[in-house]
Amino acid sequence: MPRTPTRFDLRPSRALVLWLAGVIGGGVLAAWGSALPPTVAGALSVLAAASLVRGLRLHALRSARDAVIRIALEPEIRICFRDGRECGARLRETPLVHAWLVALRLETNRGRMSVLVPPDSLANRAEHKRMRVCLRLGGVS
Length: 141
Description:
By secondary structure, the protein is of the alpha+beta class.
């Protein structure tokens, strides 16, 4: 009997917005509080701001064109991007699977990418648990 795909529709995540802003904001504060020259601290702040915007659009808000909005865990992984494109993917390494975050490092025909899935980016905590169980026991490659 063929296995039916397990699909997960990803939504924007408030928790990931706060986490990214806190970590990157803390790095900016550390750069300005250190003995670095102001030009170096300013350059680091600009790089941190760019990193924050990219992380928010790609992982937290899922508003970027290349943001993953759907994952289907079958014997092989299928992902769907915000602009409607779909492609196959495979895990590059063992995924990080915890109650507070699932982090997938994927290899696609377009290159390497990461997908962060906190519990609030799925419909409910049961969906997040189902994803964790699929990744731990499901034989996904």
